[in-house]
Design a protein that fits this description.
The structure is a homotrimer.
Chain A lengths: L9 E6 L7 H12 L4 E6 L7 H11 L6 E6 L10 E6 L4 E6 L5 H6 L3 E6 L15 H14 L9 E2 L14 E3 L2 E9 L5 E3 L3 H7 L10 E6 L2 E8 L11 E4 L5 E4 L5 H5 L6 E6 L18
Parallel strand pairs in A: 1-2, 1-3, 3-5, 12-13
Antiparallel strand pairs in A: 4-5, 4-6, 6-7, 8-9, 9-10, 9-15, 10-14, 11-12, 11-15, 13-14
Helix pairs in contact in A: 1-4
Chain lengths: ~300, ~300, ~300
């Protein structure tokens, strides 16, 4: 049994459109015109142009905090090609994610408990007619979001898709090898903290349980750098100039320095590889044979 | 017969204020304070400082998609001089555009079907008193927008003006000369696509009808560059490295390269002149006598 | 007698989070989730990272124009330390300011007439549980703002504080010394106008009443520069190339040049010291013994 005719009150927006021109405003105007009762929330429009991975991660960080409703996410390097425009229902109808089928929505869908239904947005009755090339945010995604808010059932918007066949996300899981836990930087925040794809369970497994305790030392290898990093519970517990591993506000471990940028100190960016291994000291960095090639 | 007492629910905002300080927020606070039922939509606040032409074009691109209501647009290099603050009613009262009388509103008014009434915003009863210099967005335009939302009739806000005497827009029409269609770049979008002031009718006239068909070749001359450009219907149809003319999402032709910036490749910016002429090939660029001086 | 159970409809937001990632969006999502009836207004999220002084001044400039409701302000270099998270009631309950107790809120509270009540936000029942480090905007301040909107009384949110013991603001008053009025630059706006901490009363005191009249000349000394500046009532009254003192839209005097940046011309930034003294001419700058050391 599907939720039929459910109305939504909120559309949360995430794009790589930037705010320099009127693209975001036009998307919101279309939603307002078609569904005047719905409110919009700008999650961010500052995703790097065409950075599907970065957009999918920002959406995943936000999604546990979103109110019930529609999410409209557009980072779409394949616009104009055969990539599908989709809408994915999650949590039995509590939410619907609308966007391109390129992996952007996948981590958010997974965090919301997985897809219950999905459609390709191919019903032209629920789209705007473009005077030229299609502007998918304006002509396809915004009308879909608005019609969903008005209670149009997902199945009306287009052809049903098997959710299992949607393009998966691009987020690597860390993997254990003989020399340690091979992780990667998911995100560098505005303070230079480097969020890794490593949560408490993975860190605990690293050092037979000692890694999860505040105070444990982990050796961090990235590029030419090798550092000891203390596991601490808040940024203020970091020793001056020393690298730490802090359980951040999303519940993932981040490489951090107190009031300095770990990204700058360790020359790390999103997608870069990091190896964590059991360590007993926090000697200063010394050149060592590099374990990993930097990506990109 | 005027629409009297009509209330509005939406104020769409476009300014050159930027988002670095609280100017936009204060404008929205004033609207919220005076007309709590009204919602605001930020079209953009990223118009270049004092770029009236760029602002008027962004407004024109957005206006076909706006819900009924008030538009508050401020790009105002003449603030503090004798330029008038105005409100212009369009579409028999479906919308009112509020802003300075410097051409900023003119293309939007025209696209909305022309002005049905206009006033100068000179009634101090509908303005805020400033503690010093007038901040027109806060003290004049935001209160006018809010009072319109509350059902105050346009005529209450100030002295009636003849809409025909408002400052016209600054958008040139393309003109046909012996060597081709003299056009100009209206807008460079974030991908570097260069929107021209050329629609399907003008392009059709260029080559006795062949120019409008996808696949036709047009010679593009701009500055020292001369290129053959194929008319294509989507960005994905562009050949690698070749310049194309794509009917964009506003229904205007844009110079474009597949996944590259046409603006960078051709050294074009807003307002630059381009000549389109009938062409049969797409040879690479070669130096030719320049037909046009670059503007600015 | 306190206002108990008062509900609010608006949350005005000011942070240093920027718009590049989803932080602001998550704060708004939390408010929307907990208090769906409340609207948010973005005053600005462009305060310089950790610039408490700049944030407190932007809030002070905005606060006279805010509708009744909650203000959520976060510029928080001390997050994770012992600085308190607070909520401060003003105007007998017309508004509540929520943020860190580091001086950020103090000028706004003063401009709103002073605090009537204050609490430390230490009741975990009105906070979100973080999966790791606390993200105070999301986990503490946004829930507090939302619960206030829902009619939860201030006293429910935590331990009562004496408003007189809150951290004061960092805004210096100008002081009169033998060589003139020692002032400082509060704010450089996007046009380069340098707002001083000098209002009409202070300027009047400077020259036995002549300084307040448009047309009076004041000598401005800053760093190595010494200039005569004419007091003018609008920016358009400035002579070309000459420095003027304009009563700006917040009712404070600003150093300004017509269509040029006074900040660039005089090498001034926020917090820099300026001495105003009685003057009779507006000779061009000449090197003079410097009266003041530049701050920072």
């Amino acid at each position: 049994l599907h939720a039929v005719g459910r109305r939504y009150e909120t559309v949360s927006l995430l794009t790589d459109y930037g705010l320099d021109d009127e693209l975001v405003g036009v998307v919101k105007a279309v939603i307002r015109d078609l569904a005047p009762h719905a409110s919009t929330i700008d999650l961010t429009h500052g995703i790097g142009p065409f950075d599907v991975r970065g957009g999918s991660l920002a959406l995943a960080r936000a999604i546990p905090y979103l109110p019930d409703g529609v999410v409209l996410a557009v980072v779409d390097p394949g616009v104009g090609t055969s990539r599908k425009a989709i809408a994915v229902e999650v949590a039995g109808g509590a939410g619907v994610l609308v966007g391109p089928d390129n992996g952007l929505l996948a981590p958010g869908v997974a965090l919301a408990g997985g897809a219950t239904r999905a459609v390709e947005l191919d019903n032209p009755n629920y789209q705007l007619e473009a005077p030229g090339a299609t502007f998918a945010g304006r002509d396809v995604f915004a009308p879909a979001a608005a019609h969903l808010c008005n209670g149009v059932d997902l199945d009306e918007l287009g052809t049903a898709l098997d959710p299992a066949l949607l393009v998966p996300g691009m987020i690597a899981l860390p993997r254990t090898e003989t020399n340690g836990l091979h992780a990667e930087v998911l995100w560098v925040d505005r303070f230079g903290n480097c969020q890794l794809n490593v949560g408490p369970d993975e860190l605990a497994s690293l050092t037979a349980g000692s890694g999860e305790r505040a105070g444990a030392i982990v050796t961090v290898t990235c590029g030419d750098e090798r550092r000891g990093a203390r596991v601490v519970s808040t940024f203020a517990d970091l020793a001056a100039g020393a690298v730490g591993l802090v359980l951040d506000s999303q519940g993932m471990y981040a490489l951090a320095l107190d009031r300095r940028s770990a990204a700058a100190e360790l020359a790390l960016g999103p997608g870069d590889a990091v190896v964590l291994s059991a360590g007993e000291d926090d000697r200063p960095a010394e050149p060592t044979p590099v374990d990993l090639s930097r990506r990109q």
